Amino acid sequence: MKIGIYGGAFDPFHNGHLSMIRGAIASKKVDRVIVIPTGMPCFKPARKVTLSPYRYYMVKSALKDEPKCEVCDIEQVFGEPSYTVTTLQKLRQQKVVSEKDELFLMCGSDILFEFESWYKPDEILKQANLLCAVRPGMDEGAVRNEASHLEEHFKTKIRFFKIDGVKVASSVLRKDGNYENVPAVVSAFIKTNGLYCEDAPLMHVSDEMYKTLMAHSFTLFREMSGKRLLHSMNVCILATRYALRFGADPDKCALAALLHDCAKELPEQQQIDLASEIIHGYIPGKQILHSPAGAVYARHHYGVEDQEVLDAIQFHTVGREIMTITDKIVYLADKLEPARDYDDLSLIRELAEHDLNAALIECYCAIKESFARKGQVIHEDTQRSLAYLLANRSQ
Ligand SMILES: [Fe+2]
Ligand SMILES: [Fe+2]
Asked: pTM for this structure?
């Protein structure tokens, strides 16, 4: 089978990317296309690129009904820079493609002019041929000349295919915040998850913490469903924003928020065993169990030693009488992240713009009312936390 390999950051995925995929299939130069969102970038500072699970799930949603096309997570599971040559080798090693498959590395014509400076271009061409897109209006003579030079130099044959004239750049889309030129599902994805916000809170965590968050997001990708991982990353970004707003430590808030649900999809018995290490004499209910279990799991599995971070994970579900600022931020970010739409959160979100305690009180009261409607009472720790906040609120 002839397989097109189409890699990129897709930050965001847009109609130009879609025209590449459709053009390659329509040209019949390939039978199908494997799309590979970049995991960890090699040629850009990591912070310049959106955390990779966002981009992977964005591309997945954009292409879920696209025929003869699949999205591959091969670069999502390795916490190391993704060179094209190693990705191609891994595709064969992991039998994503077979030895008999012929691979065609899809690229725009601009890539031909920089290809020689890529990492191990000769090794790449041992694994795959180049399949270059021809756009209306481009200087075809210059491109063909460059192609001839590469063909001679590397003893390879470069194929071409035509695509529509969609001219759009991800960097321009991000800068303008205008998403007309992206598939509708992608603009919905961007909106739901609040991507490409101008304030970019993660730019303010330390270099060390950014590396840690990236490494954990690769681990979480392997261990967690897409929906929960996106939720966790949304909580991470919102918690960092709140930390910066209210003078808390952005590193601690970001880490606790990213890992707050890290134990939620573990088998129940494993959660009970983990929680039992810090809670003695009783087993918390199913909804709460993952919080203490998560604190222990974050320590064992993610190497978190900071007690303030572990506490914020432990108390993110029901709170505790005296909450630290990190506890409050992670608790609220969990309830208010942009994809949360289960209730009208506008008042609490508005309060969280300027008054953390007022937002927390309002959030507790909303939960209390919702429980009361079902004839239930809120957890005693939440009651204590609410009472403490009310008693100590500034007049
Ligand atoms: Fe949770
Ligand atoms: Fe959560």
From this structure: 0.94
